[in-house]
Write a structure and sequence with these properties.
Radius of gyration: 17 Å
Bound molecules: iron/sulfur cluster
Low-confidence stretches: 1-20
Number of domains: 1
CATH architecture: 3-Layer(aba) Sandwich
Number of helices: 9
Oligomer: single chain
CATH class: Alpha Beta
Order of helices and strands: EHHEHEHHEEHEEEHEEHHEE
Strand content: 15-25%
Length: 236
């Protein structure tokens, strides 16, 4: 039996959460118009060393991953995107899957997160991707960033269109001011961003979830990395 040890009240997407700054609206607009820019994004990511597979629909991306990943040990970097795609359940039918968002009866988040670092395949998402081909993630515990960098045979980044920004600067801004506050609110932690929900306050809260910021300028050496782009909003 598994329990969801990390997911708290769910939220859908930024537009549902009254994030009202002009910058946020601008970035949401870029996300919605990303279909027009997907060719540029794919070119940028490929020139940064990634293999890229693009899907118009989430269901097609799920089918693809379900065919690609078979009889493997699979770790997840806890991600709302993967939860929305139900990949824990689907891949779990023919793989050995560990996910910090689905802990066993007597397992803690940290125990499961450590197991995820020693699998053949690792799946996660990012907080933002720029049209110029950089990926950005903010992490509190470090399991998501650590798992995405080293030690696996293959890493998949699964990214919905809502994460797309024009520049690296915008991607960092989105990670800090949209993704992190939404995550804080989802987790129900005591931070000013979770309370107000509109931006990062660079807090000193003991429950702060922004302890490291990772910019993936290019694919890490000696590891296979595939970016799965989905032209639907996924995750935060
Ligand atoms: S640094 Fe603090 S206020 Fe800013 S997004 Fe992270 S948790 Fe929220």
């Amino acid at each position: 039996m598994v329990k969801q040890c990390w997911i708290l009240p769910s939220v859908s997407h930024p537009e549902d959460l009254a994030i009202v700054s002009g910058k946020a609206k601008e970035l949401q607009l870029i996300g919605r118009e990303a279909k027009m820019n997907s060719k540029k994004l794919i070119r940028s990511l490929e020139s940064n060393g990634y293999s890229v597979t693009y899907f118009e629909r989430k269901a097609s991306a799920v089918d693809y991953l379900n065919n690609e990943i078979d009889q493997k040990t699979v770790g997840f970097g806890d991600s709302g995107t993967l939860v929305e795609m139900k990949l824990f359940e689907i891949l779990g039918e023919h793989n050995s899957v560990v996910d910090p968002q689905h802990c066993g009866e007597n397992e803690s988040f940290l125990e499961v997160a450590k197991k995820c670092l020693a699998t053949e395949v690792f799946l996660t998402s990012v907080n933002a991707v720029s049209e110029t081909g950089e990926l950005v993630n903010i992490d509190g515990t470090g399991n998501r960033i650590a798992g995405s960098l080293f030690g696996h045979k293959k890493v998949y980044f699964v990214i919905g269109v809502n994460k797309l920004t024009a520049t690296l600067e915008d991607a960092i801004w989105r990670a800090k001011n949209i993704a992190a506050p939404l995550n804080a609110r989802r987790l129900g932690i005591r931070t000013p961003c979770a309370h107000k929900g509109n931006r990062c306050y660079d807090c000193s809260s003991p429950e702060r979830i922004c302890n490291g910021l990772m910019i993936y300028y290019k694919k890490m050496s000696n590891i296979e990395v595939e970016v799965i782009l989905v032209d639907e909003a996924l995750g935060l």
